[in-house]
Amino acid sequence: MLKKTPLYPLYAEHGARVIDFGGWELPVQFSGIQKEHEAVRQQAGLFDVSHMGEVRIVGEDALSFLQKVTTNDVAKLVPGQCQYSLMCYPSGGVVDDLLVYFLGEGRYMLVINASNIEKDLAWLREQAAVFGDVTIEDISEQTALLALQGPHAERILQRLTDAPLAELKSFRFYEEAHVAGIPALVSRTGYTGEDGFELYVKADRSLELWKRLLAEGAADGLVPAGLGARDTLRFEARLPLYGQELSADISPLEAGLGIFVKLDKGDFIGRDALLKHKEEGAPRRLVGIEMIDRGIPRSHYPVFDGDGKRIGEVTTGTQSPTLKTNVGLALVDRAYAEQGTELYVEIRGQKLKAKVVKTPFYKRGAAV
Amino acid sequence: MSQVPSNLLYTKEHEWVEVLSDTKVRIGITHFAQEQLGDIVFVELPKPGAVIKADESIGSVESVKTVSDIFSPVSGTVAAVNDALETEPEQVNASPYGDGWMAEVDISGPEALNGLLKAAEYEALIG
Questions:
Q1: Cα gap B114→B110, rounded to integer Å
Q2: How far is the first Cα of chain B from the last one, in angstroms, to the nearest whole number?
Q3: Which of A16, A226, B5, B71 is most buried per CB count within 10 Å?
Q4: What angle do CA A56, A210, A52 make, to 5 degrees?
């Protein structure tokens, strides 16, 4: 039996095509991936990402516990601020990537990937056993999450809330705001490479919030958007997806996420392995590739050098809806990471030429 | 135009066949197929002169998120392909039975069409 978010009843109304996404019945698209992608880049899109997991970490030892299980420096957070981080295994491989919200003294919220909820909870509980006062509470079921993303997001949301959004910086949040009269945690975060907000609300108020946002935003070009556009948007902005750019076998340093690994903050799980990676250089690198020959790189397609030696594989690839070029991210032997390096992607039995290019493929505000 | 034109033949894999003469057919993918795929951004076709077999993959159609094989509905020799799809793959969405055609194939005779579905049969299949 597939799991459904509280917003499931609305999908059909908006003409969504629903797919099985890691055990969840979720909308891959509404009006079309291309259209939704463009709407988010130019106006605004509304995503239901209620499948994401939310976990409260509470107690006197919450900070020291999180310092131990995550790679970023939790002590740097002020209340009302969140950070991107990773949980690693002692090997340096990644348990999950996540957001850490600092709600207040001894109170944190983690936002984790839907497909990893059970694994993460087991991991967190196992690690918490040696800490004194830490409570781990899974609030995923009762929490819905709507992502309002795009250049028009602020003006749409501001019409529905008294919270001063112009003052809310990136990776900051208001824990107790109201949107259309509905209590919500309003966070200036997202997974699209655009400005935008993520709204955490009680599951039983999410239908109402979805409807109010769409009605309010229609004049500003707001459309419902699905997982397909979410994936192409995050891909163009080079935001990693667990299971593709990150896994138990890929370290954050290989994935180019070194700035979220604070080796000098004190001990944490995976530190020794990551320190070694840093000193010796990670054996593989995540690079951007662009096809020279005709073809579209896709996840898991093997990558070769000019002599036919296998040097890695594609983690994500598509035709960029913004640039219209056939591009991908690939995890390759570090000797091939230099921009301009020519390599070959095997597509349907043929080795087709590509080259290493700069990422991200798309950056907000930059000319395209 | 009907979404399942009655003058065409079909396969379970959602290709259509237009009989141009006793020894020549034109092929493409159906309205249903293009709708399922979504925005088509890439089409790979066989080369003219290629000898192809029924039910074997002769190319691919890719949308933003998916890659899908084109299975040949007939055995024969590729006589021509629709090169315009290289630069305008979206024609497959806009006009799957018209400008979105994919290839013309020389066949040995009408017996090459055995086993293909009639419009009513295909319509029943896609429900």
A1: 8
A2: 18
A3: A226
A4: 30
- Residue indicated by tokens 């840093």: A278
Retrieve residue A261's tokens: 């690994």
Please state, for a pLDDT cut of 70, what percent of chain B lies above it. 98
Q: How far apart are CA A284 and CA A253, in angstroms?
A: 9
CB atoms within 10 A of CB A175: 18
Residue A332 per-residue DSSP state: E
ipTM here: 0.85
- Averaged pLDDT for residues A8-37: 91
Each residue's pLDDT tens digit, B45-83: 999 999 999 999 999 999 988 899 999 999 999 999 999
Alpha-carbon dihedral of residues B32, B34, B39, B44, nearest 10 degrees?
160
Nearest CA in chain B to A296: B42
- Do residue B44 and residue A318 have CB atoms under 8 angstroms apart? no
Contact criterion met (CB below 8 Å) for A43 and A16: no
User: Which tokens go with A155?
Assistant: 């003006």
How does strand A107-112 pair with strand A53-58?
Answer: antiparallel
* Domains of chain A and any CATH numbers: 8-49+141-236 (3.30.1360.120), 53-138 (3.30.70.1400), 283-367 (2.40.30.110)
Q: Most A CBs within 10 Å: which of B44, B47, B64, as the mutation test of the A interface?
A: B64
A328–B contact, CB cutoff 8 A: no
By the 8 A CB rule, do A194 and A1 touch? no
Q: Pick from A192, A198, A194: which is nearest to A172 by CA? A: A198
The residue count of chain B comes to 127
Nearest CB partner across the interface for B38, out of A33, A295, A326? A33
Contacts of B34 in chain A (CB under 8 A): none
Query: Does residue A244 sit at the B interface (CB-CB below 8 Å)?
Result: no
Q: Is the pLDDT of residue A367 over 60?
A: no
Look at A231 and B65 and tell me if their CB atoms are within 8 Å: yes
How many Å lie between the alpha carbon of B88 and the closest alpha carbon of chain A? 12
Distance from CA of A34 to the nearest CA of B (A): 7
Write out pLDDT tens, residues A138-185. 999 999 999 999 999 999 999 999 999 999 999 999 999 999 999 999
Asked: is B9-109 a CATH 3.40.50.300 domain? The reply is no
Q: Where are the domains of chain B?
A: 9-109
Contact call for B65 and A28, based on CB within 8 A: yes
Q: Does A27 touch chain B (CB under 8 A)?
A: no
pTM of the model: 0.94
Residue B93, min C-alpha distance to chain A (Å): 12
Q: Is A263 on the interface with B (CB under 8 A)?
A: no
